[in-house]
Write a structure and sequence with these properties.
Layout (H helix, E strand, L loop, with lengths): L2 E3 L25 E3 L15 E6 L4 E6 L11 H12 L5 E3 L2 H4 L13 E3 H10 L3 H12 L2 H14 L22 H12 L2 H7 L3 E4 L8 E4 L4 H4 L3 E9 L3 E10 L2 E10 L2 H15 E7 L4 E7 L2 E7 L3 E6 H4 L2 E7 L5 E7 L2 E11 L7 H16 L3
């Protein structure tokens, strides 16, 4: 329910800091009415650290330990892919070394001496979470695993990661190999800006070069959310004994893109799904004032003056914030009447107002002139 605080429009000028307006490009996002919208609380999840982010409105929606440095498992491979995409050509031919083929754990079963296109290795890396593909990419791009790791840490500094450090390209547990949920979010957002990265992480299954013995290679993504969560865009899963289950997930509904980062979970798909559902349900674009709406009225000696909204005013808020929205009418520093939307004590939007005053009543002189004209018409006087 909106609480309206109406401040009388006097000549008093108040200096205010304007809130950022909703971008015109967001016009396709449906708005919600404020009335009858029940507040929702964040879900209980098993993850020890998590972060829910609205990328459309550039806002952190909820989090737990988002800046805590933790083992990240195969979400490491997002950074591996970013370095490769920046430093090599997709059509590069990569010869698989014995060390890459022998790395172990999650694999696409590379064979020493095989030649793969870099793009195929990237698909194996991000879809199948192949450790052997990670090391093959690293050795091709930098000449050695150590050299590639330096490139990973250099890129981490370049994109502003604050609680991350890399020791390998695949994510197997290693001392000094860690990231925070916030840093993983930033890596994912950077990756999704690359159309090749975005296409691969959103793919459910793919075929790969046949094995040397002629056997077909087919891999299905490790990210079950692509099949189970409406609007899922993919990203990256991970698991090690040290990291637990991890996932960086993204989904889009009604023009809004959300990211959920889950670390140290016992059920990463359920946790990410719950967080994404909460983000889409509990937050939205609320219509506070409609264009042409009479926001306030004030009686005076000559009638009622109406304050009419010059435009629609939509604000992004949580269902909890929506119950605490105030409308405040004041003069801006330019001397123009405005309606300000506040949630708590924070200004979250404003639009201008038109003051529509009543038509003046005819004076005594006007009345005599009207009566004289009527008399002349009635008697046919020119």
């Amino acid at each position: 329910m909106i609480r309206r605080i109406i401040v009388l429009l006097t000549a008093l000028s108040v200096v205010l800091s304007p809130a950022a307006p909703v971008e015109a490009s967001l016009a396709s996002i449906p708005t919600r009415p404020l009335e009858g919208f029940a507040p929702l609380s964040p879900p209980e999840v098993t993850a020890e650290a998590w972060l829910l982010w609205d990328d459309t409105f550039d806002r952190e929606l909820a989090s737990l330990n988002p800046d805590q440095a933790r083992p990240m498992a195969s979400t490491t491979k997002m950074m591996t892919a970013l370095v490769a995409l920046e430093s090599a050509d997709l059509d590069d031919e990569v010869v698989v070394s014995p060390s890459a083929a022998a790395v172990g754990e999650s694999e696409i079963d590379l064979v020493p001496g095989e030649t793969w296109r870099l793009e195929d290795l990237l698909r194996a890396l991000l879809m199948r979470s192949a450790n052997d593909a990670a090391l093959a990419i690293a050795e091709h791009v930098a000449g050695s695993e150590a050299g590639f790791v330096r490139m990973m840490n250099d890129l981490a500094t370049e994109i502003g990661l604050e609680n991350s450090h890399f020791m390998n390209p695949h994510g197997l547990d290693a001392e000094g190999h860690f990231a925070s949920a916030r840093d993983l979010l930033n890596i994912a957002i950077s990756g999704m800006e690359n159309p090749v990265f975005a296409d691969i992480v959103g793919t459910r299954s793919s075929t790969f070069p046949d094995e040397p013995n002629g056997e077909e290679r087919v891999a299905v993504t490790t990210n079950a959310l692509l099949s189970t969560f409406e609007g899922a865009l993919g990203i990256k899963t991970g698991f090690t004994n040290g990291a637990g289950l991890t996932i960086v997930s993204a989904a889009e509904r009604d023009g809004r893109r959300l990211y959920a980062v889950v670390m140290g979970s016992t059920d990463h798909f359920a946790d990410a799904s719950a967080l994404l559902r909460y983000g889409f349900s509990a937050f939205g674009l609320f219509n506070v004032v409609a264009k042409g709406q009479i926001v306030a009225s004030q009686r005076g000696p000559s009638g009622t003056t109406d304050a009419i909204a010059q435009d629609d005013l939509d604000v992004f808020a949580s269902s909890e914030d929506a119950e605490e929205i105030d409308l405040v009418i004041e003069y801006s520093e330019d001397g123009e009447p405005v309606v300000i939307v506040e949630a708590g004590e924070e200004e979250i939007g404003r639009i201008g107002l038109d003051l529509v005053e009543p038509a003046p009543l005819p004076g005594i002189g006007d009345a005599f002139a009207w009566a004289s004209a009527y008399w002349d018409w009635l008697w046919g006087n020119d």
